[in-house]
């Protein structure tokens, strides 16, 4: 996925609990999401990301 500054991307995930936590990620970071219904990525600089949704 490629996003330009100001763009965002949302996708549903295969889980059942929702949270409003927000985290800032920088170059080289990774994130593991658990028990979330969806994730929204909002970028301030160009982004190249790999998003994988694994069923539980």
Secondary structure topology:
Blueprint: E1 2-3, E2 8-12, E3 38-42, E4 47-48
Antiparallel strand pairs: 1-4, 2-3
InterPro entries: RmlC-like_jellyroll (IPR014710)
Description:
This protein is an all-beta fold and 56 residues long. It has one domain (1-56). Helices cover 0% and strands 25% of the residues. The chain is built from no helices and 4 strands. It has strands at residues 2-3, 8-12, 38-42, 47-48. The chain has a two-stranded antiparallel ribbon with strand order 1-4. A two-stranded antiparallel sheet has the order 2-3. The chain is globular and about 30 Å long. Mean pLDDT is 73; it is low at 14-18.
Keywords:
25% strand, two-stranded antiparallel ribbon, mainly beta, 56 residues, globular, RmlC-like_jellyroll
| SSE pattern | EEEE
Helix percent band: under 10%
Count of spatially separate domains: 1
> Nearest-angstrom radius of gyration?
12 Å
Provide mean pLDDT, rounded: 73
Overall body shape:
globular
Number of helices: 0
How would you classify the helix and strand content by structural class? mainly beta
Low-confidence runs of at least 5 consecutive residues:
14-18
Strand order of the largest sheet: 1-4
């Amino acid at each position: 996925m490629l996003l330009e500054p100001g763009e965002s991307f949302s996708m549903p995930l295969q889980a059942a609990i929702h949270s409003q936590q927000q985290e800032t990620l920088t170059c080289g970071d990774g994130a593991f999401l658990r028990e979330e219904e969806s994730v929204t990525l909002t970028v301030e600089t160009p982004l190249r990301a790999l998003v994988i949704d694994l069923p539980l």
